[in-house]
Amino acid sequence: MAKFVLADDPYYAKAELLADYLQKNLPDFHIFKITQHPHVWEEWLRDVCEKNKWSHKSSPIIWRELLDRGGKGLLLGGYNEFLEHAQLYYGVTSSMTTELMKAIAQENLEAHIQKELEKESLKDLVDPLQVWITRWDSQSPGFSRLAPGSGLAPGLEGSCSRTSLEGGRKKTLHNLAMNAQDLVSPVLRSISICTRVEEAFRQAHVVIILDDPRTKEVYTVEDCLRSRVPLCRLYGYLLEKNARDSVRVIVGGKTFVNLKTLLLTRYAPSIARNIVAVALGVEGQAKAALARKMKTSPSYIKDVIIWGNISGNCYVDLRKAKIYKYESAIWGPPRFSRPILSLVFDSEWINREFVTTLKELTATGKQFGGMLAAHSIATTLKYWYHGSPYGEIVSLGVLSEGQFGIPEGIVFSMPVKFENGTWVVLTDLKDTEISEQIMTRMASDLMQEKLVALGDLLHFQPYQPEPEGAALTITDDKEENQEYSDDFEGISLEQ
């Protein structure tokens, strides 16, 4: 089978008529037409000839592509060569007069111009997804791939524009922008850098907050907490002023993720429900640790729940966790699953090594570094737009309304599902009650963070729980002036 390509300025009526006749009457004859405006014809012809190493200077140009031989192009020439080919191989010729050819050519030109105008008008109607990322450089190199259509967020269709807000380090940001462009994402329309604060989040559909202050100075816990307020107040004001009413805000970073999310909801009250904290990084690390123990893939482990403070005092709940495709004496179809806790018989590992492993991974915010953090945010964004997998539990930091006995007015990681472009807290889950002591410990720290940050409490005093049953808590003793955000306060599990 061969495909014949006709490329010309608008004056290719004779060749087009002959090609249409052959395609209509021959089952294996196919044509492909390329029309160019006369103003760009010569430049286009030169580029085509250079690419294919052809020599052709007049209009039209016709070549043959042998589809069964890898599609390599074979130049036929102009109209006379194409007519000779048709007569020789197919016994077909053309009898179009010159006057008729010119009339049809003029119609072709007008149709071509109209088609181009329609394309331009359609482009104006396309509303690209405006994605703003603050402190984009703070998580290099993983975040150079964080964009709809980049491969980390499959299913987000349509054009998008990504903007990074940053007051300095322009050279670094320009390098990151170039790296993102090198991905050649088909839906990434443009990348720009914003250094004018008043323009931040203009018409944003999605805002990703990555800010973590960097300094070598030693802070007290209270200084660390209060230092988050001015920037969150500014971002809240800009979100209210410039972003779209339906903007979706995802908060990440290495420190005080819950607190930053809470402050943003306070200073951008009209979009408070659309401001969430990403918890999939901690969830992913827990699944990976379990997968290594069970010698399986982390993707086969579902429904691990992260409660509490994402970058602080959290509780990893395995009571609903399931594993799929696990090779054992009991086997079933792809949808068959088994409870994780019924398969991990080493309770010492669950209560000791598993906790220690997660603590080491999450120390100094490693749960939000590079590719893991980028993937966590991109997956959260994909779920938000297209829904989470049916029946699967997802962890997300959201503003508490009193669910599960969690105090109102704090951002708390809890089980949710995404559907219809929003998220819903899974309050109907059975057997997910959390002991009063564990809940008090997590909620107390988050409440104190809020009060200290807002100036309603002078000193932060971490809650010190007593051992309870099979639950285990690991805490770190910190010097008074050590930065509070360096490590998790603790990770708890309950068997």
TrEMBL record:
SUPFAM superfamilies: LDH C-terminal domain-like, NAD(P)-binding Rossmann-fold domains. Pfam families: Ldh_1_C. It comes from the Eukaryota. GO terms for biological process: malate metabolic process; tricarboxylic acid cycle. This is Putative malate dehydrogenase 1B. Residues 286-449 form the Lactate/malate dehydrogenase C-terminal domain. Residues 476-495 are annotated as: Disordered. GO terms for molecular function: malate dehydrogenase activity; oxidoreductase activity, acting on the CH-OH group of donors, NAD or NADP as acceptor. Keywords: NAD, Oxidoreductase, Tricarboxylic acid cycle. Residues 477-489 have a biased composition (Acidic residues). It comes from Cnephaeus nilssonii. Belongs to the LDH/MDH superfamily. MDH type 2 family.
